[in-house]
Amino acid sequence: MSILHVQQIQRKIEELFSVLVDNSDISRTDLARDKKILTRCLAAYAVYTTVDCSMKEAAAAVTDGADDNGIDAIFYSPIQNQLIIVQSKWMQSGSGEPDSAGVSKFCDGVKDLFNLAFDRFNYKVNNNRAAIERALGEYDTRYLLILADTGDRELSVHAQRRIDDLLKSGAPPFFLGIVGSVRSNRR
Q: pTM of the full predicted structure?
């Protein structure tokens, strides 16, 4: 992805989400603060462009932070009966792909979520526990995993293997699949 494209995405997601996404847990002196905020904005954007919701709802879905178990956003739409689970990676250079370790952590987090292991998640996930349990308890909930990034490459063989293993290990019925880089412009 070109630097120009990354800058366009940055301007758009900052415009939409920078004041809506909770960043209170990121220290003002954190050297990676800007990247962390952009990662959260990208996660919110992934939700917003995937399911019918408001910008405020998409921002509230962000779970990124300490003990997020690899999951950066979770949103349940009872109207669409769809649970969206997002991992996002902001790559300022526009090159690269999500690393295998991050994808592995995400897959483990998804398994923990499906096993209702809420003790393995931060307060942001637990604040939405009732909605998540409702989604997981509904027979016909559809699930969509999203790996949102600003890189220019497909997943590595090892990262893709982790995703494939997750799907083979008993993905729930009505699993919609996995969406790669979020580069669309719905709104």
A: 0.91
